[in-house]
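To: structure desk
From: M.T.
Subject: fold request, one chain
Message: Could you run this one when you get a chance? Sequence is below, nothing fancy, just the single chain.
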Amino acid sequence: MILPVVAYGDPVLKQVAKEITPDYPNLEALIENMYETMYGASGVGLAAPQIGKSVRMFMVDASPFADDENLPEAEQEFLKSFKHTFINPVILEESGDEWAFNEGCLSIPDVREDVFRKPNIKVQFQDEAFKTHIMELSGLAARVFQHEYDHIEGVLFTDKLSGLKKRLIKGKLGNISKGKINVDYRMKFPLLKKKR
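Reply: Done. C-alpha cells follow.
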C-alpha cells in the first residue's frame, strides 16, 4: 500500500526517532509499504519519519544511480545491488574530505541543493530479521545512507545549508508545508487548511 509522504514542516521530521524491536507491530507490512511508497515516488531512499513513524528505520535502493556514466565502473556495479532495509542503524566512523552533491528529498519536493558530506563511512545496522551487520560504504552509497540517517536524527538536508541558501528557499519551503506544490505522489501537508 502506498502511504502519503509527510511534507516539510511536520514536527515528526524534526524528532529523534526511537529504536525498534522485533515485536514492533506489523513490521513486515510496514517495510513492504515503505518500499512501495518509495518506488511510487521514484525515490532512492525513504525513512520511517517520512511516513509519519518516528522509528529508527529506513530503506535504500540506489540502483538508479548505477546508470551514471560519470561514476567509476566499480561504484556503478556496487550501486546496482545496493538495496537494503536498515533498522536501528549507527554510523561508527566517517572519514575523508567532505564533498558536495546536489541532494533532494521526497518530503521537500522541487528543492535541490548542494550538501557537503564525508565520502567514507562505516555503519552498523540490523536487517529485517534483526541480524546485526557492519558495512563500509563510500561515494554515493555513503551519501544516500547519510541522508536517510539524518531523517531518523530529526535532521533535513536543508538544515545543512548556509544561512543565505536557507533564506533563498524559505518561500518555497513555506509553500510545501501549505500544500502549494504539484507532486505526482501522495503527500500529507502539515499546514494545509482543512476545508469545512
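Reply (cont.): The chain has four helices and nine strands. Let me know if you need anything else for the meeting.
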